[in-house]
Amino acid sequence: MGCPDATMLAMRNRSKTLATWLAVVGGSLGLHRFYLHGAKDVWAWLHPWPTLLGLAGVIRMRGLGQDDHAAWLLIPVLGVMLSIGMLSAIVIGLTPDERWAARFHPDHTSPVSASGWGAVIGVIVALMIGGGVLMGTLAFGGQKYFEYQRELSEKQAA
């Protein structure tokens, strides 16, 4: 047997519980992907940009009020990114331990260990946060869409 390559060394012994909680806390920024796949992961680097755009929408709405159309478009982007982070936490936390060990313990020297209650509680928290964020995003987007349609019809009537 030769020396293990750098990718196998980089993927050694990733904790499912830690990955679940990183997705709960910073999934919209891609923290879980950086932890699991390293700094060379393209998808991890694509997570922060839409999240920051959504935060810019929140800042715009706080500063300019509810009539800012750019904020109407940007805030749902933040909601979608938060929902993606929570969905990632759910998928990571519900991955069977054997499958997790096969993927993130490539040397197979460590025995398959049960992830325990930490991952389960992370999944429960992600379900609660993700459900609330997704419902709020849909409600906000729908409200702003229908307000915009009403505004257009009033302009056409005038």
Detailed description of the structure:
With 158 residues, this protein is mainly α. The chain has one domain (6-157). It contains 8 helices and no strands. α2 (16-26) runs antiparallel to α3. It starts with 5 loop residues before the first helix and ends with a helix.
* Global mean pLDDT: 86
Secondary structure tally: strands: 0
- Profile the largest sheet: none
The helix content is over 70%
Give the count of helical stretches.
8
Helix and strand layout, with pairings?
Blueprint (H helix, E strand, L loop, with lengths): L5 H5 L5 H11 L4 H7 L4 H5 L1 H17 L4 H26 L2 H8 L12 H41 L1
List keywords for this structure.
mainly alpha, elongated, 158 residues
Structure summary:
With 158 residues, the protein is mainly α. The protein contains eight helices and no strands.
